[in-house]
Amino acid sequence: MSRAKIEGKRIGIIGIGNIGSSILRGLLSEIEDAQFLIADVRRESLSAFAANPRVEICSSNEELAKKSEILILAVKPRDVSGVLGAIAPFMEDKLLISVAAGVSTGELERYLADSGSGRRVRVIRAMPNIGARVGESVSALCSGSNAVSEDEELAAEIMSAIGSVYHVDEKEMDVITGLSGSGIAFFAEVIDAMADAGVYEGLPRDSALTIAAKTALGAARLILAGESPATIKAMTASPGGTTIRGLHTMESRAVRAAMMDAVIEATRRSREMG
Ligand SMILES: NC(=O)c1ccc[n+]([C@@H]2O[C@H](COP(=O)([O-])OP(=O)(O)OC[C@H]3O[C@@H](n4cnc5c(N)ncnc54)[C@H](OP(=O)(O)O)[C@@H]3O)[C@@H](O)[C@H]2O)c1
Questions:
Q1: Candidate of 45, 75, 176 to mutate for ligand 1, largest count of ligand atoms within 8 Å of Cβ
Q2: Number of domains comprising the chain
Q3: Interval 244-266: pLDDT, tens
Q4: I want to staple 20 with a disulfide (CB 3.0 to 4.6 A). Which of 2, 64, 74, 89 is the partner?
Q5: Whole-prediction pTM value?
Q6: H/E/C letters for each residue in the chain?
Q7: What is the CATH classification number for the domain harbouring 61?
Q8: Residue to mutate, 59, 72, 76, 127, ligand 1, most ligand atoms under 8 Å from C-beta
Q9: Is the same domain home to 47 and 148?
Q10: Do 160 and 212 share a domain, yes or no?
Q11: Distance from Cα 216 to the centre of ligand 1, integer Å
């Protein structure tokens, strides 16, 4: 993807935890000409970037907001209103991209308007996942009421530095949080359980885990190449063989229902948080 729109920009990130640091690392490796400003109450999270000449460590969120043209908010949802309340006076004519789960564009705009100059701030909401650490995030984006197409393109360029990007309606953000934001942990759980079975049957743990993860990757790549899950099952399960025995076991233990419920409950929780 072209990154022409963010080249030369000053991009601030508040919250350099799991997601904020992944976004920063992705941007540093993908974009040559932008400057980055970072702030976090946990000062030790910032020290990893202290030696990088393209990264400026700010002593406060307010300083960061004053100096940045685009601001990425990557703090926990409970911290969003406090942070936005403090930086609102400096957000006029700037773009805010929030990755906070369950915090709607309407709420983001309200927190900024309540404490700000009264001017309408351009807001984009993004839902990445922790695959961002290896450039494999699936990030959904939706726009607030004041954002223009240029802002959507800027946000897409930024999030594409950590993986793939999808534009969605805001009403779909909760299910995307369940399916992708949380869903990556559900796959980790399944891979871990399969690796445990490998260990139970005598494999060393490290090879069992690698083989389980690569098997998951193979299934994912086949599906992304256009094979349906049903075709993968049909190509693997021979009559009276091992796979159909395992699939029957999964069916009798209601694994499909459990996986569906995990996504549905995570989606509900995202709605509750909003
Ligand atoms: N992790 C994921 O898989 C994931 C996926 C999609 C979206 N998200 C969203 O991304 C956001 C960040 O999640 P995360 O997992 O990266 O959280 P995290 O690792 O806890 O990082 C957040 C960082 O922000 C710091 N912080 C808290 N209050 C602050 C303030 N007022 N000013 C500056 N920094 C402050 C935190 O410090 P303290 O620890 O001292 O509070 C922490 O270092 C959340 O809203 C989450 O919903 C996360």
A1: 75
A2: 2
A3: 999 999 999 999 999 999 999 99
A4: 74
A5: 0.91
A6: CCCCCCCCCEEEEECCCHHHHHHHHHHHHHCCCCEEEEECCCHHHHHCCCCCCCEEECCCHHHHHHHCCEEEECCCHHHHHHHHHHHHHHCCCCEEEECCCCCCHHHHHHHHHHHCCCCCCEEEEEECCHHHHHCCEEEEEEECCCCCHHHHHHHHHHHHHHEEEEECCHHHHHHHHHHHHCHHHHHHHHHHHHHHHHHHCCCCHHHHHHHHHHHHHHHHHHHHCCCCHHHHHHHHCCCCCHHHHHHHHHHHCCHHHHHHHHHHHHHHHHHHHC
A7: 3.40.50.720
A8: 76
A9: yes
A10: no
A11: 28
